[in-house]
Specification:
single chain, 454 residues, alpha+beta, Anthranilate synthase, three-stranded antiparallel sheet, binds the ligand C=C(O[C@@H]1C=C(C(=O)O)C=C[C@H]1O)C(=O)O, isochorismate synthase activity, Chorismate_C
Length: 454
């Protein structure tokens, strides 16, 4: 029998299951945010880059190296650091060095654990009724924020801002998170799966399609995504949607802002850098994306996966362009703190190798509550209605794994309650049982700002 792991991360390259905590590193990667408003010329020259490499950042990585040394002295032969860095790097990281861990192949794990029987039982065990669902911001406010962002682009140098929302779900009982995670993995066998227990007892769980950075020796890889379309059930329609996406000038432009920013960050760090001329299509079960696989060879072999990842993060795929100004715009129009949403999650070892995925297509789960996150890149040509629909489509990854109809998030598709009871009865009964449940508005983080601040 498996003990509940402290951390689980899986990609096509490696799986890591970690147990116990030797030492935590809960400092911010960057201690302060730069608040000075740069003039236009300076802003252009700095682009997204300068704000992301500071002395504070070096201090953080020095602390990590020291922690690795202590772990070695304490008898941990090959220590690794695992966890997540929030969207805002001035907020505390959630990293730790585990007492023990095992590395495994995801392909083998899926083969062994996800036979048809366990897929079905995973689906059933993880399915729940949704008693209440609440989007922060709601549809009208999200669209208003998109319009605000577009108006702002016309008056500033900001070219892109990623706006997001959190869907807060109250379920009719606690989720079986083991079964849920297995179901998520089975439905989305590719990409980056993660499960990270957090200090307050909640867990960050997700299946992200996006790699921020993998380092193997001197080689680094990144696979940014930007520009999205919803998958279609009909194969012919699905193909047409993907072709339309690859020809969409709005999406190609949105994508190019991400790639140029990552190129600008990586170029000075790399002896070689290969960035394909044009994006290619990739898909998840729910979405089509424009994708650019980037490969580089580091100049400095001591630069770690986490150092390079923190230089890139947050890319314009999750923040905007230019980064610092887009971040301020997000803080102005987004009515919640992202916390770990839109951050990075992964691991690295003391040699500097490791893999960091972008924390999207994910949620934070506490007992019978789930908070799911989705965002969309906004540029001048964005249409508020289709950006809202894009966030709905992105939420589908987690909603499907929960067995919830994404169009009607208050109706669970799979019913595990006893037969002979109507959905209404079940829902009412559950609502009564849930009478003691924590008030949404009073609940902790990350939905903690009160409405859109203009
Ligand atoms: C913000 C999300 O996705 C990001 C935004 C994308 C876009 O705007 O097209 C595509 C992939 C991700 O980089 C999300 O899934 O929540």
């Amino acid at each position: 029998m498996h003990r509940t792991p402290e951390f689980l991360f899986m990609s096509s390259h490696c799986g890591i299951r970690a147990h116990g905590i030797y030492e935590r590193l809960c400092l911010p990667v960057r201690a302060t945010s730069e608040t000075g408003k740069p003039g236009r010329a300076r802003l252009r020259a700095e682009s997204a880059s300068c704000a992301r490499s500071t002395a504070n950042e070096q201090a953080f990585h020095t602390r990590l190296r020291e922690a690795f040394q202590r772990a070695r002295s304490a008898g941990i032969a090959n220590p690794i650091a695992i966890g997540a860095i929030p969207f805002d790097q001035t907020r505390p990281a959630q990293l730790s060095i585990p007492r023990s861990y095992e590395m495994f192949s995801r392909a083998l794990e899926v083969e062994q654990n996800c036979g048809l029987e366990s897929i079905q039982s995973g689906a059933e065990k993880s399915a729940r009724h949704v008693l209440h669902s609440n989007s922060v911001p709601d549809e009208a406010r999200f669209k208003q924020a998109v319009r605000q962002a577009i108006a702002n682009f016309k008056l500033s140098d900001i070219r892109k801002a990623v706006l997001s929302r959190v869907l807060d779900l109250e379920l009719d009982g606690p989720l079986d998170l083991d079964a849920f995670f297995q179901h998520l993995l089975t439905q989305n066998p590719a990409g980056y799966h993660f499960r990270l227990p957090l200090d307050d007892g909640s867990q960050l769980i997700g299946a992200s399609p996006e790699l921020l950075l993998r380092r193997q020796g001197r080689e680094v890889f990144s696979n940014p995504l930007a520009g999205s379309a919803r998958r279609q059930v009909d194969p012919e329609q699905d193909r047409k949607v993907s072709e339309k996406l690859s020809r969409s000038s709005k999406d190609v432009y949105e994508h190019s802002l991400v790639i140029e920013d990552i190129r600008a960050q990586l170029q000075p760090l790399c002896a070689e850098l290969a960035v394909p001329e044009a994006p290619q299509l990739m898909h998840t079960r729910a979405m089509w994306h424009l994708s650019t696989p980037i490969r580089g060879i580091l100049n400095d072999p001591t630069l770690t996966a986490l150092q390079v990842a923190c230089r890139l993060h947050p890319t314009p795929a999750l923040c905007g362009f230019p980064s610092r100004e887009a971040h301020k715009l997000i803080q102005l129009v987004e009515p919640f703190e992202r916390g770990l949403f839109g951050g990075i999650v992964g691991w690295c070892d003391a040699e500097g190798n490791g893999e960091w995925a972008v924390a999207i297509r994910c949620g934070i789960f506490t007992d019978s509550h789930a908070q799911l996150f989705a965002g969309a890149g906004i540029v001048e040509d964005s249409d508020p209605d289709s950006e809202w629909r894009e966030t709905q489509a992105k939420l589908q990854t987690m909603l499907s794994a929960l067995g919830v109809d994404p169009e009607q998030p208050c109706t669970a598709k799979v019913d595990t309650r006893p037969a002979g009871q109507s959905a209404q009865e079940k829902s009412e009964e559950s609502a009564q049982q849930a009478g003691h449940k924590v008030n949404h508005a009073a609940r902790k983080h990350p939905v903690d700002k009160a409405g859109v601040r203009a």
